[in-house]
Amino acid sequence: MPKFVILLFLIGCSTFTYSQDEVMASSEVIKFKEQVIAASKMTQTITSDFVQYKHLDFLENDIETSGKLAYKAPGLVKWEYTNPYQYSVIFQKDELLINDGGTKSKVEIGSSKLFKKLNELIVKSVKGNMFDDSDFEVSYFTSSEVNKAIFSPKDRKIATYIASFELHFNKLNGAVTEVKMVEPSGDFTQIVFSNRLLNGTLDDAIFTN
Amino acid sequence: MSLFTSCSLKTTEGLRSVTLDKTEVFNPYFSNSTTDYVYKAKINIYGRYFGGILIVKKLKPDTHRVVFTTEFGSKIFDFLYEDDTFTKNFVVEDLNKKFIVNTLRNDFKILISERTEVKEQFASGNNTVYRTETNNRFNFYFFDKSGNSLERIVNSSKRKEKVEIVFSSEVKNVAQTIKINHANIKLLIDLEYFKKL
Question: I want to staple A46 with a disulfide (CB 3.0 to 4.6 A). Which of A14, A71, A162, A168 is the partner?
Answer without folding.
Answer: A71
